[in-house]
C-alpha cells in the first residue's frame, strides 16, 4: 500500500459524498477516509501496519518529528473513535486527510 492507494481511497470517499443522497453513503466514505489516513500515517512515520495499532508509539513518533502536522494523530484518533458521522464531519475529515496526504507526498523525502 502507498500514498497512491491513499489518494484512491480519498477519490472513492469524495465520490460517495458527492452522490445525490450522500447521507446514505457517509459511513462508507468515512471508512475510506480512515483507510487513507492510516496509509498516510504509515508512510509518514515509516512504520508497519502492525505498529499503527500501538497508540503510544504513534503519539511519541509524531511528537518527535515536530512538524506542522505533528498533531494529526489527535485528529486521527478522534476520527477512528467517533461513533457518529455526518455529511459535514465526513467532508471536513476528507479535506483534512487530503491535506495531510498531500503534505506527506511533498515532504516524505525530507524526513
List keywords for this structure.
111 residues; mainly alpha; 70% helix
Topology:
Layout (H helix, E strand, L loop, with lengths): L2 H16 L7 H20 L9 H11 L6 H10 L5 H21 L4
Number of helices: 5
Percentage of helical residues? over 70%
Structural class comes to: mainly alpha
Give the termini distance in whole angstroms.
19 Å
Low-confidence stretches: none
Describe the 3D structure.
This protein is mostly helical. It has one domain. It is built from five helices and no strands. Helix 1 runs antiparallel to helix 2 (26-45), helix 1 runs antiparallel to helix 5 (87-107) and helix 2 (26-45) runs parallel beside helix 5.
Summarize the structure.
The protein is mainly alpha-helical and 111 residues long.
Amino acid at each position: 500500500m502507498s500514498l497512491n492507494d491513499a489518494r484512491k481511497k480519498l477519490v472513492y470517499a469524495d465520490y460517495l459524498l458527492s452522490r445525490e443522497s450522500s447521507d446514505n453513503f457517509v459511513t462508507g466514505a468515512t471508512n475510506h477516509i480512515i483507510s487513507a489516513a492510516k496509509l498516510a500515517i504509515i508512510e509518514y512515520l515509516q512504520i508497519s501496519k502492525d505498529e499503527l495499532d500501538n497508540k503510544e508509539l504513534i503519539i511519541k513518533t509524531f511528537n518527535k518529528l515536530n512538524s506542522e502536522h505533528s498533531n494529526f494523530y489527535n485528529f486521527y484518533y478522534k476520527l477512528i473513535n467517533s461513533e457518529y458521522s455526518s455529511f459535514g464531519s465526513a467532508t471536513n475529515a476528507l479535506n483534512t486527510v487530503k491535506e495531510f496526504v498531500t503534505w506527506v507526498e511533498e515532504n516524505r523525502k525530507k524526513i
